[in-house]
Amino acid sequence: MALYAMGDFHLSFQVNKPMEVFGAEWKNHVKRIEKNCNKKIRPDDTLVITGDHSWGRNLDECREDLAFIEALPGRKILLRGNHDMFWDAKKTDKLNEMFQGRLEFLQNNFYAYGDHALVGTKGYCYEGKDTIEHFLKIRDRELERLKVSFDQAVAAGYHRFIMFLHYPPTSIGEMSSPFTEMAEQYGAEKVIYSHCHGQKRYDDSFKGYVNGIEYKLVSGDYLKFKPELVLG
Length: 232
What we know:
By secondary structure, the chain is of the alpha/beta class. 26% of the residues lie in helices and 20% in strands. The protein has 5 helices and 11 strands, in the order E-H-E-H-E-H-E-E-E-H-E-H-E-E-E-E. The chain has helices at 29-40, 63-71, 92-98, 132-155, 178-186, and strands at 3-6, 46-49, 75-79, 104-106, 111-113, 116-121, 160-165, 190-193, 208-210, 213-217, 228-231. A 6-stranded mixed sheet has the order 5-6-7-8-10-9, with helices on one face. Strands 4-3-2-1-11 form a 5-stranded mixed sheet. It is globular, with a radius of gyration of 16 Å.
């Protein structure tokens, strides 16, 4: 049994959104995801996909994308990304009911993996695209969702945590953030995130160990679309 993670599949089976326009690293990325997942992941493994699953604007437009994910080996846990328009933040329970036994959606809840609790939320960082007031509003909402995830796991008796975000845990240049502080407060062992694309963005936030926590970037293009081992 092993735990893997990778993000940013950006699938578009039902909409016209070819990813090759964003760089050569995206050429045939869907086939590479499928090939590498089938090569590395076994039926009893778990894959956490850290957001930006589909370009579909609603559930009907991304059904084939979700079917592709469902067909990958192992247990699949999905985190909400900034492009996941199909995922109404207030209706995560409904998604879990619809896909019960096939896919699991992580928001305002947690999932068990051995003696670890897998906790997470979309997160948010400042990228200069919105006002500070709007940034703080979204960030604080995501922090509350992350706290709900941690607190549910604690209430269930878990003491070991792997924390997942879609956005990086810090804005560019920050040495800490409320997300890293929460990870330290609850004693998370690892923080796994994605969202950062292209060579210029891969060093936007932490990688490696900071204050005893291991940070891993798992953006699909960064990983060359090979799932990253989180726990063996």
